[in-house]
């Protein structure tokens, strides 16, 4: 009777699994097909494996250069956001600043406002400041885009941290920056890991601002490589699928390696504060 009652649950879980894994399986199938086979059968498995698609996609999309650019942009974004969000979250949870509640509400609203609304004034501002067509200029934009969400996540995590060690450090004469560096940040490592992974994933996959604020082909991030597989009215889906697998591989490996810390940090930040 118990197994019978569990059947609908397993059926729903199986449907969700197919819904989640199905597109990835189709992506792998198309990456291994010829163009003719992908055009005639876009869902089924390939009749023969064509690994040359990965080589062609890597060369035609210039993935070596674009992945290096994305790595630099993502690293700069993660480091900057972690510093900005860490300092802001510490100030909101430990320094008891006046108007901290209003700042938190502002950050919450900022995460809901579409950043595309500020595209035109931001474009002219970046042009006047000499930051247009600059990877650093794009990184600064990402700092502004992702710092509010990262601050809210870290604030939720900081609220749940015990203050005994911080009070002991202050009694010993440590200043606030030293307390943050030597006490709070080591305890908040799972939360920082969560923020770094989430922000890194956003920066790695971001396309709109990258294609808008970068012009030089040697500075383009990896997501813009998909444009290399588009012709006038057609797209080579075999090379697109192969490039997608190459692009997602570093993120997948990184997530699997830090999966436990990511889940611990995300759970803690969601349940506390």
From TrEMBL:
Record's keyword terms, sorted: Cell membrane, Membrane, Transmembrane, Transmembrane helix, Transport
Topological type in the membrane: Multi-pass membrane protein
Keyword Mitochondrion: no
Keyword Nucleus: no
Domain ABC transmembrane type-1: 67-258
Stretch forming the signal peptide: none
InterPro entries: MetI-like, MetI-like_sf
Chain ranges passing through the membrane: 9-32, 71-93, 105-124, 136-154, 191-214, 237-258
Family: Belongs to the binding-protein-dependent transport system permease family.
Protein name: Carbohydrate ABC transporter permease
């Amino acid at each position: 009777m118990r197994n019978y009652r569990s059947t609908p649950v397993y059926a729903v879980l199986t449907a969700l699994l197919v819904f989640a894994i199905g597109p990835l399986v189709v992506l792998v199938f198309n990456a291994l097909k010829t163009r003719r086979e992908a055009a005639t059968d876009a869902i089924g498995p390939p009749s023969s494996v064509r690994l040359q698609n990965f080589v062609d996609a890597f060369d035609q999309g210039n993935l070596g250069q674009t992945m290096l650019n994305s790595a630099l942009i993502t690293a700069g974004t993660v480091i900057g956001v972690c510093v900005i969000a860490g300092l802001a979250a510490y100030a909101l949870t430990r320094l008891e600043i006046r108007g901290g509640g209003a700042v938190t509400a502002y950050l919450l609203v900022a995460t809901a406002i579409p950043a595309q609304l500020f595209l035109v004034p931001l474009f002219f501002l970046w042009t006047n400041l000499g930051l247009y067509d600059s990877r650093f200029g794009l990184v600064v934009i990402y700092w502004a885009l992702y710092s509010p969400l990262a601050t809210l996540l870290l604030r939720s995590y900081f609220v749940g941290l015990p203050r005994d060690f911080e009070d002991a450090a202050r009694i010993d004469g440590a200043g606030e920056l030293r307390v943050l560096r030597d006490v709070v940040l080591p305890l908040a490592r799972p939360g920082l890991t969560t923020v770094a992974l989430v922000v890194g994933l956003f920066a790695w996959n971001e396309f709109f601002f990258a294609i808008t604020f970068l012009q030089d082909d040697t500075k383009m991030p990896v997501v813009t490589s998909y444009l290399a597989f588009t012709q006038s009215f057609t797209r080579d889906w075999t090379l697109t699928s192969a490039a997608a697998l190459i692009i997602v591989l570093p993120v997948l490996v990184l997530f699997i390696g830090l999966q436990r810390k990511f889940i611990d940090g995300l759970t803690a930040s969601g349940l506390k504060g």
